[in-house]
Amino acid sequence: MTSENARLMRSATYASVAVASALIVTKLTAWALTGSVALLSTLIDSALDAAASLVNLWAVRHALTPADRDHRFGHGKAEPLAGLGQAAFIFGSSALLLVEAVDRFAHPVAVTRGEVGMGVMAFSIVLTLALVRYQKYVVARTSSVAISADSLHYAGDVLINGSVIVSLGLGMAFGWTMVDPIFAIGISAYLMWNAWQIVTGSLDMLMDREMAADDRTRIKDIVRAHPDVLGLHDLRTRLSGQQGFIQLHLELDAQLPLYRAHAIADEVEAAILAAFPNAEVIIHQDPAGIQETHPDFAGPKTTP
Fold first, then answer.
1. Minimal CA–CA distance to 150: which of 27, 215, 58?
2. Per-residue model confidence (pLDDT) at position 235
3. Residue 177: which of 117, 98, 110 has the closest Cα?
């Protein structure tokens, strides 16, 4: 990774923490003035954002640490480990918010000074949109998994803040006190769904799930495009943060000199790296037609 991309990733994490901190202070003041439980839900969400952004900051800094003697595959799995921690915070806070919202059904409370809350939500939307736009720019340049997940979370916050504006508006215009906890329950459900997506994505990376089927097909097409390659087998892939790992066996003419076989493997490796620049590629050369025992994996059958 270039120093410029590393700088962009770090700056995105700093911007995320700064925005979340600013929104916490603003929303805390607005909630104290309005008493809106829907606004409380966005305050909790912003607090989660700040915690998640701090964890992302640590994870990105650690993931960018070069491989060392004790971690020769790098530190990329710091990102999914941080994701599991974020998900635990989100699940717990969402459950507390759900309890508060249900209590408001039993003991309705009228929202006061709703115009303050609506103003704060409008400010939050503008600030969050600016952050999301910058994060998307960084993701386009770096393909960072952590920044991409953070950006998706903040993009969802824009919808949450918009829903609170609607909730406050209906409460002020028609006195519908039930709208406030209903929106809070909806937001709680959204946060739990979002946390589950983080959990599944993090576990996939920690359990060395194969890269997407489209990526595997692309790798096979690149390998087979070389005129001296007769086939391939035992393709295995995984992701660790931004770092990808690709290994495969090339099937080559059995009469090729070792030097030529090595040169072909280097050419195939260069072609794969051109398509997957953040990957580490390991290629083993096999004589075509040799009888070998290949691993038999559980699950649907796929091509080699």
1. 58
2. 94
3. 110
Q: What is the pLDDT of residues 51-65, one digit of tens each?
A: 878 877 887 777 777
pLDDT tens sequence across 148-182 = 777 777 776 776 777 677 776 776 777 666 776 78
> Nearest to residue 267, comparing CAs of 243, 285, 254, 287?
285
Q: How far apart are CA 44 and CA 157, in angstroms?
A: 11
Backbone angles phi, psi at 73, to 5 degrees: -100, 10
Contact predicate 154/131, CB 8 Å: yes
CB 274 within 8 A of CB 218: no
Distance set, CA 217 to CA 42, 125, 143, 220 (Å)? 42, 40, 20, 5
The partner residues of 245 in beta bridges, in order of sequence, read: 238, 280
For residues 223 and 250, the answer to whether their CB atoms sit within 8 Å is yes
What's the N-to-C CA distance of the chain in angstroms?
A: 30
User: Tell me, what amino acid is at 243?
Assistant: Q
The pTM (predicted TM-score) of the whole model is: 0.66
Integer Cα distance of 187 and 18 in angstroms: 23
**179-206 and 145-174 helices cross at what angle (nearest 10)?**
170
**Neighbouring C-beta atoms of residue 254, cutoff 10 Å:** 12
